[in-house]
Design brief:
Helix content is about 45%, strand content about 15%. With about 350 residues, the protein is α/β, with parallel strands linked by helices. The relative contact order is 0.09.
């Protein structure tokens, strides 16, 4: 336990000055708070009582009592001196902090935090934060990436983006893919609805009631979706979905489909079916390049808006929710517009490869 602080010594002239600051309408509020702290301390009020009465903290009370004892009223009329800032730190020490952030790691972690770096460098965590902010350093974050190793990358990239930016005449462009293993998850306990001042709640654990696979074809021009759910996603189900597309697209139009290199799409029976339906034209994205397929963007929408926080007690209930989402989407479709050109993408990939190949 700490000892009770004594009465703060204050002359009559100093008291008059502080009381004038408290009454004045032009006095900064931070100065008013400090003056009130000192006036109460001069009356013998304890630090805890002052902190409670003025809705502040005990360390704040102690800090400004000490400042008044050392400097009098001028000491509380100015901001308290902070620790060393990046401007007052020697340039060599700032450089050392930046270098340590970039090229070292703690013994017990994969990356630095402001506190661990501050303890190592002998400065405050706020100083580390300001230095990192000034140099654009964010050790707590990491971004994922994947470069395609497809030998025909440029050829496939050019083909797909060509279909986006210059679609064929008298044709429909569809982005096709499967979203597999969508789980029908039910929560172990009912959650509470959202109300003012509190978000909705749901348990972190769940009950599994099976899975379904969603086949989807996004119309690039209109934003409408042809969708179908199946228990599995073999070539049998894919051919069934192709027949659904064939029925859904007017007979006078060709069908250009953008899809990935999943084995089902290249199955001999699928190829045989496509050979009997010459209006279907396939455009394959390069390997590890799902970002080229716009239907992936739509999958993100249905996951975020309908599936992730949904409660489904059976697979049919999940399928019904998916079909309802597709129906509402098609009533007011909003297409995703592709704007990136081939050269822009190739320049970015070349830069990425150059950075990866540079020793750090």
């Amino acid at each position: 336990m700490w000892e009770k602080a004594g009465t703060l010594k204050m002359s009559a002239e100093q008291r008059i000055t502080l009381e004038a600051w408290v009454r004045a309408k032009t006095t900064p509020q931070r100065t008013v708070l400090r003056a009130r702290i000192c006036l109460l301390a001069a009356q013998g009020v304890s630090n805890n009582a002052i902190a409670s009465q003025l809705s502040t903290s005990r360390p704040t009370v102690i800090q400004w009592r000490k400042r008044f004892e050392e400097l009098g009223p001028p000491g509380i009329a100015e901001d308290a001196p902070h620790g060393l800032s990046p401007q007052t730190l020697p340039a060599e020490q700032v450089k050392a902090i930046v270098e340590a952030t970039l090229h070292t790691t703690p013994l017990d972690a994969t990356h630095w935090s402001t506190r661990t770096m501050a303890a190592t460098q002998g400065v405050g965590k706020s100083t580390i934060h300001r230095i990192w902010d000034a140099h654009g350093l964010q050790p707590h974050r990491v971004e994922g990436f994947k470069l395609s190793k497809d030998k025909r990358f440029v050829e496939k990239l050019t083909d797909v983006i060509g279909v986006y930016l210059d679609p064929p005449d008298k044709a429909v462009v569809l982005c096709v893919d499967e979203k597999s293993q969508i789980q029908a998850l039910d929560r172990t306990q009912p959650g509470l609805p959202m109300k003012k001042g509190r978000c909705g709640t749901m348990t972190h654990d769940y009950k599994r009631h099976g899975t379904t696979c969603l086949f989807a074809a996004l119309n690039v021009l209109e934003g409408k979706v042809i969708g179908s759910c199946s228990p599995r996603h073999r070539n049998i189900e894919f051919r069934k979905f192709l027949r659904q597309i064939d029925r859904g697209v007017p007979a006078g139009l060709d069908i250009h489909m953008i899809l990935d290199n999943y084995g089902t799409h290249n199955h001999p029976q699928v190829k045989a079916w496509l050979g009997k339906h010459p209006r279907f034209h396939l455009h394959f994205t390069p390997t590890s390049s799902s970002w080229l397929n716009l239907v992936e963007r739509w999958f993100g929408e249905i996951t975020r808006k309908r599936i992730r926080r949904g409660v489904f007690r059976s697979v049919p209930e999940l399928v019904a929710a998916i079909e309802e989402f597709i129906r509402v989407n098609n009533e007011n479709p909003k297409p995703f517009v592709w704007t990136k050109k081939v050269n822009d993408i190739l320049e970015k990939i070349a830069h990425c490869k150059a950075v990866i190949g540079t020793p750090h």
